[in-house]
Amino acid sequence: MSDLKRVADLAALLTQVQNEVATTQETLNELKATERRISEEDLPQLMAEVGLSEIALTTGEKVTITEQVNASITEAHNEAAIKWLTEHGFGGIVKTRLIVDFDHTERKDALATLHKQEKKHITELKETVHSATLKSFVREQLEAGNKLPMDLFSVHPYSKAKITRPKK
To answer: Which of 12, 58, 77, 103 has the smallest CB count inside 10 Å?
Structure first.
């Protein structure tokens, strides 16, 4: 077999594998969407309709409905959300991020600025709350019955079905 034929065959094989990967990824995305719909919509809704929050199946699995919450701070609400947290005694979860830009030839200047904290090089100063910290904070506050400005934190509570398989 000639070298060119071997190259062409391997290139054809690569194309075939790439197509299979793309098809498999598409199938996986569809399966994940179906899983999310069943676990976060269909099953919690049906179990609520029949008055169950937990059930043991004859196959040994246990289905439990848990209350979840998603939360985030949009750029449009960032300043107001940070202000609210600070004014209500929760400023400890706010982190200040400082970004300083230097050209790659200015490494020595960058290190010196780091030690001196020269403000003339600061290109961005941003206050944020880490997403996991915010989610945990919101969940704790809601569980404690405390009121939160839901719009500032883009709070989205939802129910989720969890399947626990039996131990083998």
So the answer is: 58
Whether the predicted pLDDT of 110 surpasses 70? yes
Comparing CA positions, the residue from 157, 154, 142 lying closest to residue 72 is: 154
Q: Which two tokens stand for residue 106?
A: 């200015």
Percent of the chain with pLDDT over 90: 79
Quote the tokens at residue 10.
Answer: 């391997």
**CA distances in angstroms from 79 to 74, 84, 140, listed in the order given:** 10, 9, 22
Work out the average pLDDT over 78-91.
Answer: 95
Q: Is residue 73 part of a domain?
A: no
- Residues 36-47 have a mean pLDDT of 97
Neighbours of 64 (CB within 10 A): 15
Expressed as residue numbers, the domain containing 29 is: 3-52
In a domain, residue 131? The reply is: no
Tell me how many domains the chain contains.
1
C-alpha 145/C-alpha 159 separation (Å) is: 18
- In whole angstroms, what is the distance from residue 27 CA to residue 34 CA? 11
Give domain status of residue 97, yes or no.
no
